[in-house]
Give the backbone structure.
Amino acid sequence: MKAYVLINIRAGEVKEVVRQLRRSQNIVEANMTFGPYDAVAVIDAPDINSIGNLIASTVQPIPGVKETMTCLAVEI
């Protein structure tokens, strides 16, 4: 299962947050963005519970992360 995690980050900490995201297992990609969110991470996990656990234990505790919004990807 794939999810896109949109992340708001404190000013001046975007590069470090993205670096840490890229080092995390199950995070396929992480990039800085322009617009209402500062970064986006792509997560690949076996199920929705794993995605939730990964966000709660790996993404949100990173210093500088203020807020996340998760968008689940579905195949049609």
The CA atoms of residues 19 and 30 lie 8 Å apart. The two ends are 13 Å apart (CA to CA). Residues 48-59 form the longest helix (12 residues).
